[in-house]
């Protein structure tokens, strides 16, 4: 699980970096930056939903730290 989440996070950062690169090189002439940012949002939502699903299935557990401390 740790490896999967780390890989997903790295993919999200790569997508953000590619959007920055396209913003600097294309100067608004193409939609590659928009597609990179849309991919980043999709990856982020997918990762969040996968973590919720993994918790529901019991693949990951909470740390047991009480809320408010």
Automatic annotation (TrEMBL):
The lineage of its organism: Bacteria, Pseudomonadati, Pseudomonadota, Betaproteobacteria, Burkholderiales. It comes from the Bacteria. This is Putative transmembrane protein. The keyword Membrane applies. Keywords: Membrane, Transmembrane, Transmembrane helix. The chain crosses the membrane at residues 6-25, 37-59. Pfam families: DUF2909 (PF11137).
